Amino acid sequence: MTVDPRRSLVAGLIWLVVALALSFACAASLWAGRVAREIVVQQHVRRLLLETDQLGSDLGQSVSARLAAARTARAAAPLERTFALLAAQYADQGWIALADEAGTVIAGDGSLPEGASVAAAPWFSRGRERPWIGIVETGVGEAKANRRSSPLGDLSLPLRDASGRTLGVIATHLTWRWVTRDLLRLSAGPEPAGTVQTLILDADNRVIVGPQTLLNRRWQGIPTRDPPPIEAAEAVLAARDPAGPTAEVPRFESLPGGQIVLVARSPVIVDPDAAAPGWQVQLSEPKERVYWRANALAERILWISVCLGAATALVGALGARHLTNRLRRLTRSAASVGRNEIERIEVPAGRDEVAQLARAFAKVLDDLRSERSELLALSSELERRVAVRTREVERLAEESRYAAIVRERLKIARDLHDTLAHSMMAMLSEVRLLRKLQVHEPAALADELVRAEEVAHEGLNEARTAIAQMRLNAVRDTGLGPALAKAFGRFIDRTGLIGEFASDDEAARFGDERAETLFRISEEALRNIERHAMATRVTVTLAMNHDTHVTLQIEDDGIGFDTGLSRPGHFGLVGLREQAQLMDAELRIRSAPNEGTTLSVTLRIAPEVLWPLAAAAHSA
Fold first, then answer.
1. How does DSSP classify residue 420?
2. Where is 319: in which H helix or E strand?
3. Helices (H) and strands (E) in the chain, counts
4. What domains appear along the chain, each with residue ranges and CATH number?
5. Measured distance CA(28)–CA(306) in Å, rounded
6. Per-residue CA distances from 109 to 13, 524, 542 (Å)
7. What element of type H or E holds 387?
8. H or E element in which residue 287 lies
9. Where are the alpha helices (DSSP H) in 417-479?
10. Beta-bridge partners for 218
């Protein structure tokens, strides 16, 4: 089997199915991959925004819970009892330490040693005025490490009595125990640990909870021109409480190191009476991690689509091969008939196109065989007829050769008549005159002998000229016009008559066998004028009439003759008529006694003869 579609229809169909399947698979995979990529990116952004929103809400609830607990226990005295009461009633809130108004730790969970001064610590100095959030530096290694692992940090807030006087500052640890199950589920994603960074910023975008390298530093992210996937973010923001604070749409920001991250921020909602100074939770994730799952999914869709396309192409190729089996068998059958291996085309059963085509081929083959038989019979008949026609043509050729010999004999006879006969008649007249002079006037015999000698020389010259003209063919070489003009010039020089010759260009270039015959007719006419007409003026005209006829006209003003009289023994006029009949020309002779003679010969020229004449005229 060939795989070249130029040699096999099956191969062409298979390649077409393969190309269509793979093209559709690639197009569908690209489209589906793009759609899936957008959906996954939007889901990822939605998840990041939800997690940020959840963290902000949980942090606000945690701060609010501690504020409420502190308000509930602030009337208790002394302060140690207040801390013990809080730690006993709110054991799940992770209290750290209690410092009096002088900054001395008077109670705690062991993270800060009792009696230590924390007056210079940020959590104490700021916690005297309002709630503070950040990292409480305890100095205890294990406890410090455990607290720093919390993404929410620590909280300090003032303890006041009923009059509003600050009695001390209490610090509590914000742990994950207040985080909801949804937040835990969202945090347990497939991304590697550490890819999502959690920070808590104050109103000045300063990091108050986060890695040690970023603490107490302003967030240095600069928004980029990368368009964020805001559809998912806007959907989440639209689902929030319209009366609540407005969160920022996630956007891409560039860090000083060149890394681009997607940043999502959410405000921390606490008790309005606590006057929390604009805290916000920020989650950031590298841009490549945002699109990692989407690109991986798009790549999987592409490979799955390509594999499905390849499978479809394979199934389509097998289906095309199966569907074209009948056509392939028909092709083999037709080829076998062409090689004369079988006599008839195998016609498959059914009514489909292949069966119809096979029946049509079979009918055409039967018709061709019938016509071939008829052609063979006709060929045999034609061969028989050709044999008969061949024998007829051979007979006609023999007769044509005999006719050519007869024509040559007649031509020689005419030439002899035109030359030697005239010369011999002149010599015979001289001999008769000499005999008479010998008897009656012997003294004039010498002069007449000289005249007889001249006549003999003229006859000899005419014989030589005739022989030369039989050997040469001036008409074929130069055309009828130039040959006729030269012969007429010799005639005028010899006879001393007044002559006029006229010929147009097209007639002058005529030069086939019929032109030679016209030339012979003109020579015979001029000799007759010279010997018998006693003319003083001769006019010869050669012209083309209506572009289809050549006319030769010779006119003299001689004594003329009666065209109706028969002259036995004179063959001049007979020879002229024979020559005109041989070339299918029309010969006309108009003459009467003492009125001169006009001879005209009109010959029709076929178009195939005129074309060379026209081409020659154009080139000239």
1. I
2. helix 292-323
3. 18, 16
4. 26-295 (no CATH), 324-472 (no CATH), 477-620 (3.30.565.10)
5. 9
6. 83, 161, 149
7. helix 353-416
8. helix 287-290
9. 422-440, 445-471, 474-478
10. 206
CB 192 within 8 A of CB 277: no
Predicted local distance difference test score (pLDDT) of residue 588: 92
Please answer whether residues 249 and 240 qualify as being in contact, where contact means their C-beta atoms are separated by less than 8 angstroms: no
- Rounded CA gap, 109 and 86, in Å? 12
Phi, psi at 160, each rounded to 5°: -125, 155
Report mean pLDDT in 10-residue bins for the chain, 620 residues: 64 76 77 75 78 79 74 63 74 77 83 84 84 75 48 76 79 63 47 67 81 83 71 50 56 85 82 61 81 76 80 77 73 78 75 76 83 89 89 81 68 63 68 76 75 73 65 70 90 91 89 85 89 92 87 94 71 79 89 92 74 49
Find where tokens 């009289």 sit.
565
The set of long-range contacts for 24-30, using a CB threshold of 8 Å and a minimum separation of 24, is 24/309, 25/305, 25/306, 25/308, 25/309, 25/310, 25/312, 26/302, 26/305, 26/306, 26/309, 28/305, 29/301, 29/302, 29/304, 29/305, 29/306, 29/309, 30/302
Nearest by Cα to 602 from 553, 555, 556, 563: 553
The phi-psi region of residue 205 (left if phi > 0; otherwise alpha if psi is between -120 and 50; otherwise beta) is left
User: What pTM was estimated for this model as a whole?
Assistant: 0.44
97-103 LR contacts (CB < 8 Å, sep 24+): 97/136, 97/170, 97/171, 98/159, 98/168, 98/169, 98/170, 98/171, 99/124, 99/168, 99/169, 99/170, 99/171, 100/167, 100/168, 101/128, 101/166, 101/167, 101/168
Q: Tell me, rounded to whole angstroms, the distance of Cα 475 from its chain centroid.
A: 63
Cis peptide before 78 (omega within 30 of 0): yes
Q: How many CB atoms lie within 10 A of CB 558?
A: 20
424: amino acid identity, one letter? M
- Distance (Å, whole) CA 485 – CA 444: 40
Hey, which residues does 171 pair with through a beta bridge?
A: 97, 156
CB 495 within 8 A of CB 526: no
Q: What is the dihedral of CA 570, 575, 580, 582, to 10 degrees?
A: 140
Return the pLDDT at 498: 93
Give the helix ranges, DSSP H, for 93-168.
Answer: 122-127, 141-148
Residue 145: is it exposed, middle or buried by C-beta count within 10 angstroms (0-12/13-18/19+)? Answer: exposed
